[in-house]
Amino acid sequence: MRQAGRYLPEYRAIKDRFGFWEMVRTPEIAAEVTLQPLRRFDLDAAILFSDIMTPLTSAGIQIEFNPGPCVTTPIRSHDAIRRLRLPHRSAIAPFVVNTIKMVREESVRPLIGFAGAPLTLAAYLVEGGGSADYGVLKRWLHDNTPAAHDLLRFLSDLTTRYLHLQIEAGVQAVQIFDSWAGIHSVRTYDEFGLPYLKQILAALDGTGVPRIYLAVGAAHLYRQIRTLPIEVISVDWRTPLDECRTLFPGKTLQGNLDPALLLASSKVVTEETRRTLRQGLGGPHIFNLGHGVLATTPPDNVARIVDIVHAYTRTEDDVL
Ligand code: CP3
After folding, report:
1. Can you tell me whether residue 228 is helix, strand or coil?
2. What's the pTM?
3. d(CA 276, CA 113)
4. I need a labelling partner for 300 at 20 to 30 A (CA). Which of 59, 177, 250, 308 fits?
5. Of ligand 1's atoms, which has the minimum distance to the CA of residue 124?
6. CA–centroid distance, residue 314 to ligand 1 (Å)
7. Is the CB of 67 within 6 Å of ligand 1?
8. Ligand 1 atom showing the smallest separation from residue 120 Cα
């Protein structure tokens, strides 16, 4: 999940001096921001500081952040899709390669690379930004099905190249963020989500790098998600891990403390962290939040959960 960001004063100090893209595109800054949470907390992994929108600018799309992504000219026509460039792997984000190398040199902790899922990227591209109901996107997908498939195919090809680039540069796991998967019906996800995810994930077969998939608010899609070639399923806070265990036999579960609970009292933080750990017993579990850290989170509560997780003995015969 996102573990850097505005809840950290040292992040805000950098953000006061530089724009978001400047931070992402300057390897010294991006590497520093990647490492900030690790300097403060005893975390077991770093996640690359970048954004799901990063590879899209290399295709000729203009994006700004305010604070979420804003696409200057939304992409809704065949012509706009035809104008998109599919750059060579090395031209997608050379600065990301350098950031990854710098982080790997500075830290022995595993580094997670990431990309956005095509359908989630398409949500921003078609809407032009975030949206309350994604009505423009949903209408566009179903009214312009051939164009929608062209766009999603393009995004899958770009994402596949981008993830290969990150793996070559040294990331040790990759996570695909499908933050808006949950807004879709099973039928829409079947047609516009699943096939493209399968294409990207299958292309990573044989890299030896674990593949993590997060779909937010998507318990109704778990029957589809079961069929993805992934090693780890990241679960948001809505579904208890023990319930997911039976749905994803043989997979590692990642999650799933509600990030909003890090705003609660230390008693609640402690209890709910331990509950998540207990619910993760019964198979391989990577403790994490169910989504990214909120900007209003007190850093001390992050420190608290890291301590609780490290102190926890998984063999203990814990009763729920
Ligand atoms: O630890 C890390 O911070 C990892 C880097 C990271 C960022 N974005 C940096 C960022 C990662 C993994 C992402 C992924 C991302 N970006 C997702 C998928 C994960 C998720 O949270 O669902 C999505 C949907 C985006 C698009 C995006 N970028 C949004 C919606 C926002 C606004 C979020 C906010 O906090 O208001 C951004 C901006 C962004 N990306 C920030 C960061 C640290 C905040 C920028 C700031 O205002 O300082």
Report:
1. coil
2. 0.97
3. 25
4. 177
5. 26
6. 32
7. yes
8. 24
Model pLDDT for residues 162-200, shown as the tens digit of each residue: 999 999 999 999 999 999 999 999 999 999 999 999 999
Which residue's alpha carbon is nearest to atom 25 within ligand 1?
A: 52
Helical packing angle, 118-127 and 145-169, nearest 10°? 120
By most ligand atoms within 8 Å of CB, the mutation choice from 52, 179, 216, 258 for ligand 1 is: 52
> Residue 269 and residue 259: Cα distance in Å, rounded?
10
Residue in 20, 22, 51, 112 to alter for ligand 1 test, most ligand atoms within 8 A of Cβ: 51
Element (H, E) at 16: none
6 C-beta closer than 6 A to ligand 1 = yes
In the sheet where 285-289 sits, what is the strand order? Answer: 46-47, 111-116, 173-178, 211-215, 232-234, 252-257, 285-289
pLDDT digits (tens, 9 = 90+) for 30-39: 999 999 999 9
- What does the block give as tokens for 11? 């992040």
User: Is residue 201 pLDDT above 70, yes or no?
Assistant: yes
Distance, CA of 148 to CA of 58 (rounded, Å): 20
Tell me: pLDDT of 119 over 90: yes
Q: Which residue has the tokens 């674990």?
A: 210
Query: What is the pLDDT at residue 319?
Result: 45
CB of 38 shorter than 6 A to ligand 1: no
